[in-house]
């Protein structure tokens, strides 16, 4: 792809883009993976395995900042002794989503309003690493695990969490924000759990901590702020000094946000569970994906492609957000994608645009073109004079439940892939 009105860029033609426009008719069933050939590993006999002795584990050391007790902590009338450090492992079950009736204060628009407020509150010289929405401080759905009793639910349940990697100058670190509605009282001050307790003008209690741990001699610095608001909101912000953007974790010794800046984040009024959602706030964007083997595509290229997409007419379709907001796909996707909801009556569907770099040139031989394994559909492949290959696919699947009186549902997927 080259910029309109310019000569072809050698840097761009060195890539192969796969640009897919996918419309999925929302008739109750969405099925993925049906157009792919079966993996050989799933259709052949398993290989013979041999048993070998387990490797001897390397020496492992984990050290935390020493705790002094008895001690005093600013803002605390009394300080309790540190308890034994213990971890817990939970396996989540049950339903979860943005409209979980167990947590009526939370919704998709509420998550977007909280995200917008958190992004605005970041310091002006601190940048989020270009990443998927879920890694750009988008608050996720509340996971609703099964708890044995109400006490466990009160302690561990009801959290929505947002993640991002923050870069500021030479320093970078992983930031997480969590919010929940709590009915438990403000906990006592415990030695080793906080460095200071602050009480804000509105009565919000904020515990702050600046500490470290060492794993095999490598020190990681952590900073946190935990707020307990009068309306029952429990809001926490955590950041470390680990830069993982290059693949190898590197500790700088300086988290990119200060303790005071974390306090400012947990004090944002829009993060309170009782804060109203501004009228017209959209819900969270549709999830999407691109080929997992894509070469990386940087933010500058994504912005250029956004401009191209924004100028493409979409046949008078009503969509919930305009095209031209490509983001990295998923947690590890190097390609870009965007999905929008089509709300035109009679054409309700999801329109997805995905861009991948470094893709192989598809076959143009009709006998080698992939065909659906089940259902009905067609695949057409043609080559343009300049070597561009266009593949068109349409796939229809009808399903019906086994219960008596169940209604058959049909899903239609149309895909155009340009390489």
Q: Structural class of the secondary structure composition? A: mainly beta
DSSP helix fraction: 10-25%
User: Sheet with the most strands?
Assistant: 8 strands, antiparallel
What's the end-to-end separation, in Å? Answer: 10 Å
> How many separate domains?
2
Mean pLDDT level: 80
What oligomeric state best describes the polypeptide chains here? single chain
How many beta-strand segments? 17
Strand content: 25-35%
> What string gives the helices and strands in order?
HEEHEHEEEEEEEEHHEEEEEE
Number of helices: 5
Question: Unreliable segments (pLDDT under 50, ≥5 consecutive)?
Answer: 1-52, 86-95, 368-373
Shape: globular
| Rg | 26 Å
Task: Give a description of the structure.
The structure is a single chain. This protein has 419 residues and is mostly beta strands. The protein folds into 2 domains: 12-34 and 285-418, no CATH class; 67-271, no CATH class. Helices cover 11% and strands 28% of the residues. The chain has 5 helices and 17 strands. The protein has helices at residues 10-13, 108-121, 150-156, 259-266, 299-310, and strands spanning 18-25, 62-64, 127-128, 160-168, 171-181, 196-199, 205-215, 218-228, 233-240, 242-243, 250-251, 327-328, 336-342, 349-356, 376-383, 389-399, 409-418. A hairpin with a 5-residue loop joins strand 6 (196-199) and strand 7 (205-215). The longest helix is centred in the first third of the chain and has 14 residues, at 108-121. The termini are close together.
């Amino acid at each position: 792809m080259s910029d309109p009105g310019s000569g072809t860029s050698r840097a761009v033609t060195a890539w192969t883009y796969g640009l897919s426009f996918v419309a999925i008719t929302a008739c109750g069933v969405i099925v993925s993976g049906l157009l792919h050939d079966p993996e050989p590993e799933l259709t052949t006999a398993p290989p013979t395995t041999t048993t070998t002795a387990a490797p001897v584990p390397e020496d492992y050391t984990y050290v935390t900042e020493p705790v002094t007790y008895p001690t005093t902590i600013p803002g605390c009338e009394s300080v309790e002794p540190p308890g034994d450090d213990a971890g817990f492992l939970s396996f989540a079950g049950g339903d979860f989503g943005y409209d979980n009736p167990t947590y009526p204060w939370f919704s998709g628009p509420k998550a977007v309003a909280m995200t917008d407020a958190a992004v605005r509150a970041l310091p002006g010289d601190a940048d989020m690493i270009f990443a998927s929405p879920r890694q750009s401080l988008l608050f996720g759905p509340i996971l609703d695990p099964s708890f044995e009793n109400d006490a466990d639910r009160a302690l561990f349940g009801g959290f929505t969490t947002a993640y991002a990697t923050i870069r500021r100058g030479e320093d970078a670190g992983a930031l997480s924000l969590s919010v929940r509605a709590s009915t438990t009282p403000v906990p006592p001050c415990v030695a080793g759990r906080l460095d200071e307790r602050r009480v804000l003008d509105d009565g919000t209690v904020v515990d702050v901590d600046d500490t470290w741990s060492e794993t095999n001699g490598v020190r990681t610095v952590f900073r946190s702020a935990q707020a307990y608001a009068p309306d029952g909101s429990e809001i926490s912000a955590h950041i470390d000094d680990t830069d993982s953007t290059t693949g190898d974790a590197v500790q700088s010794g300086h988290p990119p946000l200060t303790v005071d800046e974390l306090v400012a984040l947990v004090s944002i009024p829009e993060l309170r569970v009782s804060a109203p959602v501004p009228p017209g706030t959209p819900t969270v964007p549709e999830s999407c994906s691109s080929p997992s083997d894509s070469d990386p595509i940087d933010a500058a290229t994504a912005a250029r492609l956004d401009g191209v997409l924004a100028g493409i007419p979409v046949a008078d379709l009503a969509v919930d957000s305009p095209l031209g907001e490509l983001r990295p796909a998923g947690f590890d996707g190097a390609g870009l994608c965007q999905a929008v909801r089509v709300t035109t009556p009679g054409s309700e569907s999801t329109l997805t645009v995905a861009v991948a770099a470094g893709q192989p040139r598809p076959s143009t031989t009709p006998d080698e073109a992939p065909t659906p394994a089940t259902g009905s559909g067609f695949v057409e492949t043609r080559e343009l004079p300049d070597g561009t290959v266009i593949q068109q696919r349409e796939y229809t699947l009808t399903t019906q439940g086994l219960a008596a009186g169940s209604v058959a549902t049909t899903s239609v997927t149309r895909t155009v892939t340009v390489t």
